[in-house]
């Protein structure tokens, strides 16, 4: 499951320049413990299901039709969003199959404007799916795309909690943690199979055609597909207490979305695309983080950006590939340091810079640093916008209006990008 790569807590907590992002959530009332075990994402050892485990228990669920939202805080519902009235034509933007808590369903239904149409890009078909050597399929731009531009948006095929739960009542005593995980995955798959059975044939076929990098760890096919293709929507959807303003739900309480087109985007540690989720249209947006030329492949970063190449490869291991992006191939201790220190360094430089915006030497240092940042692909990170804003301001102060134009335009594009997060 991909992490929200622009959601580093450091990035949000340290700089006070633009307004903090807020993810305001209602706080559900606490409830007594339910007899459920939850499965985190990541690597799982295939220890096999214990011989004495009786896996024949019937899967039981709440099925939620229409606008019903009066569920208890711990109830999980299988529901279609936007809800579908069978006597009317299906929503042209599609319907998402969701395994969500009743509270989340109520939250979605109470979102102002819900269910509005999904945002449309400047022109249709700004990208296509094509095979890529050593990557399976990938997504490619069909036209030049500007920073901050919406490339496409879509209703997810499936939305589930990232750490899914299953009943643990029948787990034999003395089971090792690995075996418990296998049982949980087995039980979770039953629920997911049920969710998939509720989908239209076309959307179920699209779901089942997605890549699965978890075929050999005991994960069922749909759970494997979710773990390979899910985008975190932790800034917008999660159970339990709301995160502090500007923070996101922790992974074990957050939701994730599997998409038809978006989930075909491959990974790079130098991404050019970000995803965001809008509750009112119940859709994922995919937006350019830098200029993309027609024919270029779109890339998303599946893991953390501010770590060494070795740590990035470790984090990507569950996806079953070794990243060969330019940042990984050309990794050096100095470039690792650039990434690890990026947030702190930008914070420091911006604090220094705003004290004296007419210091030409400082501006030159900033421009040199920006060159290194861009070469490493870190201009895809939201904190980069503070650098851009400072450079633009300093150049304007120093009368370098022609040079400032580019940075001021970039800053404007970033303001729009950040609004979506
Ligand atoms: C979310 S899917 C991306 C789309 C996928 N390539 C497909 O054919 O549907 C993730 C999987 O794509 C492959 N993949 C993604 N990024 C890659 C990369 N940079 N290099 C090699 N394989 C990659 C891996 O198999 C990974 O488990």
Automatic annotation (TrEMBL):
<feature type="region of interest" description="Disordered">
    <location>
        <begin position="1"/>
        <end position="48"/>
    </location>
</feature>
<dbReference type="InterPro" id="IPR001214">
    <property type="entry name" value="SET_dom"/>
</dbReference>
<feature type="compositionally biased region" description="Polar residues">
    <location>
        <begin position="1"/>
        <end position="10"/>
    </location>
</feature>
<dbReference type="Pfam" id="PF00856">
    <property type="entry name" value="SET"/>
</dbReference>
<dbReference type="InterPro" id="IPR053185">
    <property type="entry name" value="SET_domain_protein"/>
</dbReference>
<feature type="domain" description="SET">
    <location>
        <begin position="124"/>
        <end position="303"/>
    </location>
</feature>
<feature type="compositionally biased region" description="Basic and acidic residues">
    <location>
        <begin position="22"/>
        <end position="32"/>
    </location>
</feature>
<protein>
    <recommendedName>
        <fullName>SET domain-containing protein</fullName>
    </recommendedName>
</protein>
<dbReference type="InterPro" id="IPR046341">
    <property type="entry name" value="SET_dom_sf"/>
</dbReference>
